Amino acid sequence: MTSDIYTNVPIDTERQEIRLVQLLPGHDDEQLQCSFHRHVLGCPDVEYSALSYTWGDSKSPTYTILIDGDSFDIHQNLWHFLKRQRENDEFGLIWIDAISIDQLNTSERNHQVSLMRDIYLQVSVFVDRDLLMLTTLGLSSIHLAWCCCRRKRSCHR
Fold this sequence. Notes:
The protein has 157 residues and is of the alpha+beta class.
């Protein structure tokens, strides 16, 4: 995994910025593709979901996805989750700790970890039916929750 994908969408650690992932449409036989978007916590005009999951052990298979055209490896459980989202035509913004945080950048990682409480406090938590189906299929390492944030006012920066 490389931190090169993060250089085009840097996080301002002086603000409560997070990096959101948008899954892009595609056909079943095509590689999963995503794009990054910056978001300031507290901005009321953004709807996003949040997913945190156990990374899996180093022996679990990895799959390569594309983020803004660059290759990025993820573990099998997250790949299955994203594939299912695409099959269900769900392309909203998602905060995924394993992708949204540059894990090789200690400063960013510490900053983002300090924001996790705020990320989840700002949203109402529910467990998605499809998440339960994934758990039933043996993908129980996806463990925390889907969070959904629906805001109606505009965000003024």
